[in-house]
Amino acid sequence: METPITFKSHGMQIVGMLHMPERRKGKVPAVVLFHGFTGTKVESHRLFVKQARALAKAGIAALRFDFRGSGDSEGEFSSMTISGELKDARAAMEYIRSRPGIDQSRIGVLGMSFGGAVAAMLLGSDPGICAAALWAPVGHPEAMARQRLTAAAARQLKLMGCVDYSGNAVGRCFFDDIGKHQPIRAITKTRTPVLLVHGGEDQTVPAKVSREYEIALKKARRAVVRHVVPGADHTFNSLPWELQVLALTLDWFRCNFAR
Fold first, then answer.
1. Inter-CA distances, 251 with 28, 186, 236, Å
2. Total domain count for the chain?
């Protein structure tokens, strides 16, 4: 059963879709999905829709939603910051925990790209998360942003207060905020098992970044599994790659939610 839902984050309406298993006895586990930079609750080639439906079919609820300023949610993308998305993520967790029929002891998170960085930071501060999966997670957001801030973009930022990123206005607040966040360091505070999935030919976030996550988690003696999909790009943009990622992720949550 798929139900459009809304909740509030800092006074603004967040729009999402809640996937609940059709057949269930008692309370069920749930996964909250965090989309990437300029993405939405649907994600590339409907990847989040497919994963949410696979989870629900397996008896696991799923909540996918648009961060403020993205998709159908209130707000402007020009006001988007990582700090703001982290607040939205916490609001989403509060929402799913308030739903009847959800087992609060079995809640997981799935983050993609920038959403992976948000999930990593949330993991560092929310001990109630049972399992996590990060797809091609951004590990060094400040360095990544600065690398893309060309001389022309810097001039545009100075003159207009924003940078044109494929038709999306990235505001000054994004660049002012981004240096506050170090997701690889933050995630080492978690005790939650983490699955890392990365495309071997990812040109947006190189696969070596998830290796850095893996090294940091292992050094902190945390449970982590990393899988690289050979030849895959940033969004696993082919059916064989997609099917592999969906299956791996579903198995991960089923295993960690098992009683």
1. 16, 25, 18
2. 1
SS3 157: helix
Percent of the chain with pLDDT over 90: 93
Query: How far is 221 from 48, CA to CA, in rounded Å?
Result: 30
Half-sphere exposure of 14 (CA within 13 A, CB side): 28
Rounded Cα gap, residues 92 and 32, in angstroms: 7
Q: Containing domain of residue 187, as a range?
A: 2-257
- 132: enclosing H helix or E strand: strand 131-135
The per-residue DSSP string of 197-247 comes to EEETT-SSS-THHHHHHHHHHHHTT--EEEEEETT--TT--SHHHHHHHHH
201-242 per-position pLDDT tens digit: 999 999 999 999 999 999 999 999 999 999 999 999 999 999
pLDDT score of 259: 66
The whole-number average pLDDT for the span 108-126 is 97
Prediction pTM value: 0.96
Answer whether residue 56 shows pLDDT above 70.
yes
- The enclosing domain of 152 has a CATH number of 3.40.50.1820
Give 134's strand partners: 111, 196
- Is the CB of residue 110 less than 8 Å from the CB of residue 249? yes
CB-CB contact of 72 with 66 (8 Å): yes
Q: What's the chain's Rg over C-alpha atoms?
A: 17
Pairing relationship of beta strands 194-199 and 224-229 according to DSSP bridges: parallel
Q: Of all helices (H) and strands (E), which one includes residue 151? A: helix 151-160
List helix spans (H) across 2-81.
47-57
Which of 43, 31, 47 shows the shortest CA–CA distance to 67?
43
